[in-house]
Design a protein that fits this description.
The complex is a heterodimer of chains A (about 270) and B (about 260).
Chain A (H helix, E strand, L loop, with lengths): L2 H21 L1 H9 L3 H12 L5 E2 L5 E2 L1 H17 L4 H11 L2 H6 L4 H10 L2 H19 L8 H32 L3 H14 L11 H9 L2 H4 L1 H7 L5 H32 L6
Antiparallel strand pairs in A: 1-2
Chain B lengths: L1 H21 L1 H25 L11 H35 L2 H6 L4 H6 L8 H18 L5 H31 L6 H9 L11 H10 L2 H13 L4 H28 L6
Classes of the chains: A mainly alpha (about 270), B mainly alpha (about 260).
Chain lengths: ~270, ~260
């Protein structure tokens, strides 16, 4: 399981993943339909802001145009940072097929990552129209001109994907201990939807909750990239938030390493 | 005929109850998750009403009524409808649906009653609590006529949800790998937590006629408030019946296309 071996296998893994994404395109379409929540939220919040802009506790004001830009970008970021490794792992642990993956000279986690990443080209078929529409509807006004902020946005998206993926793997590893962690995943999803900025910008939370939300990983999975793309932060704020995101990524990675190592010892490949 | 099906339903319910009694620890986990979920479902509502008194003509108490009704229907969905959906999707993927089709009873009936999650009654109790608090906020209780029409709409909404469920399952015959279908189902349903007058234009049309979320939560809340017009009530019940009929036709067509997988 050397680094070089993994790197050599990467192009093949990505190719296989891409072929799978094309084979299961109907499934992806269903998934995209189930992530249309930002559009519903867009309708809701623009109607809330119609008579008067929404006043955030921090003093920020959200008008209809702000919400439109925010939720269109939210949809795009959700597509970019998606991961479903937790369900995959649960399925493979239950059926025992994880055993065959363990025999390969390649860490299965790399396999899950390649599978998630190689679905991205297919995702762009949905993302591009939304980006174009966003450009037409909102104009260039909400988006930053500073190239450094765009770089920060890219970094935040990569970090957001890493957080989502690692959280998925961590919950997937729990299946090695408790047979099925689907229920844990359901709890995670509820928290994710509420605290990530997926349903509304986290600036709208009351101040006492904001402090908590800033230290939970969810807000960095969706909220941070979106906020950067609609220029809610200047450079200094962007860097400090990115630093926090980095800390959370490292912490989750360590957690995954521990859970994976301990969990494998308990794995018995029943049913396989 | 009817007696036979009622007996079958009773047997399935009892089997589900026995199964639930076997996994008692699930009761606590599910109970905690349900309470937690219902609380988080209210957070967006609290955020919206933080700096205003009205949302599209609804006060906080009235909007809370819609949310309470949403939690109630979600309990019905998770307890009686989604478990069966999951079971059919599994059957289709593994090809074991054959065994159900071979049984001497209607296949749609058999898959629909195949699994109930009895513990979900906790969600219903929670919904009752939210509705009670909403009426406390409003300051007066519902009238008898309001309660009666809300009960009628609850039946209509259950029929609608069930028909949507049959349509979703029918899709599973065409696209086989469909773990996502339940998530699609609940994510669309999620919009029902808001009063339908919030939405305008195309979305309002979709949520009233295509996926009639308005009927499921907004109309019952209006009925409880005594604001619902009689004609809307009649049209809702007729609409639900038509939807059920349409879903039945689609189911019969799709099952004709079923080619047993992997066997």
């Amino acid at each position: 399981m050397s680094v070089r071996g993994t790197l050599r296998a990467a192009p093949t893994l990505l190719r296989v993943g891409f072929a799978e994404a094309i084979a299961y395109r109907a499934e992806m379409f269903v998934w995209v339909l189930s992530t249309t929540m930002p559009f519903v939220m867009l309708a809701l919040w623009t109607s809330v802001a119609r008579d008067q802009p929404v006043l955030a506790p921090g003093g920020a004001r959200f008008g209809s145009a702000d919400f439109i830009a925010y939720f269109l970008v939210t949809f795009v970021v959700r597509q970019l940072t998606a991961s479903w490794a937790a369900w995959e792992m649960n399925y493979e642990v239950r059926t025992g097929t994880l055993a065959t993956k363990l025999l390969r000279p390649l860490n299965p986690i790399v396999g899950y990552a390649a599978e998630n990443l190689s679905a991205l080209p297919m995702r762009f078929t949905v993302i591009v129209p939304v980006v174009v529409a966003a450009g037409f509807v909102t104009g260039a006004a909400p988006f930053p001109v500073d190239p450094v902020l765009w770089l920060a946005f890219c970094a935040a998206v990569v970090g957001g994907w890493l957080l989502t993926f690692l959280a998925n793997i961590a919950i997937g590893c729990l299946a090695l201990f408790i047979q099925s962690s689907i229920k844990v995943m359901d709890v995670y999803l509820v928290l994710f939807f509420v605290f990530s900025g997926y349903l509304f910008p986290i600036q709208l939370f009351p101040p006492w909750l904001r402090g908590v939300v800033d230290w939970l990983p969810f807000r960095y999975q969706i909220g941070l990239p979106v906020e950067l793309a609609v220029s809610m932060h200047d450079r200094a704020a962007a860097f400090s938030l990115l630093a926090r995101e980095g800390v959370l990524v490292v912490a989750l990675a360590v957690l995954v390493a521990v859970l994976w190592k301990r969990g494998l010892r308990r794995f018995q490949a029943y049913g396989g | 005929m009817l007696v036979r099906y009622l007996r079958l339903l009773w047997i399935q319910l009892r089997a589900s109850a026995l199964l639930a009694a076997q996994y008692r620890s699930d009761f606590f986990i599910d109970g905690v998750i349900a309470i937690f979920w219902a609380t988080t479902a209210l957070i967006p509502l609290l955020v919206v009403f933080r700096d205003r008194q009205h949302l599209a003509g609804w006060t906080f108490g009235e909007a809370l009524l819609v949310s309470g009704w949403f939690v109630l229907l979600n309990g019905v969905l998770d307890g009686a409808i989604n478990p069966g959906l999951q079971a059919v999707v599994d059957h289709i993927r593994k090809g074991t649906l054959d065994f159900i089709l071979l049984k001497p009873a209607d296949a749609q009936f058999l898959v629909s009653v195949s699994r109930f999650e009895v513990w979900r009654v906790t969600t219903l109790a929670l919904a009752g609590g939210i509705l009670g608090y909403a009426f406390h906020q409003i300051g007066h209780g519902p009238s008898f006529f309001g309660l009666a029409s809300a009960a009628l709409l609850l039946a209509a909404a259950t029929v609608l949800l069930y028909s949507l469920w049959i349509l979703t399952v029918s899709a599973a015959f065409y696209v086989v790998k469909v773990d996502n279908l339940t998530y699609l189902f609940s994510s669309i349903f999620d919009a029902a937590r808001w009063p339908s007058s919030v939405f305008r234009g195309a979305l309002r049309f979709v949520f009233t006629f295509v996926v009639p979320l308005a009927l499921m939560t907004t109309y019952p809340a209006e009925a409880l408030l005594g604001k619902l017009e009689g004609t809307t009530l009649v049209y809702s019940v007729l609409g639900a019946a038509a939807f059920a009929f349409f879903a039945r036709r689609v189911w019969l067509r799709s099952i004709g296309r079923y080619t047993s997988a992997s066997s």
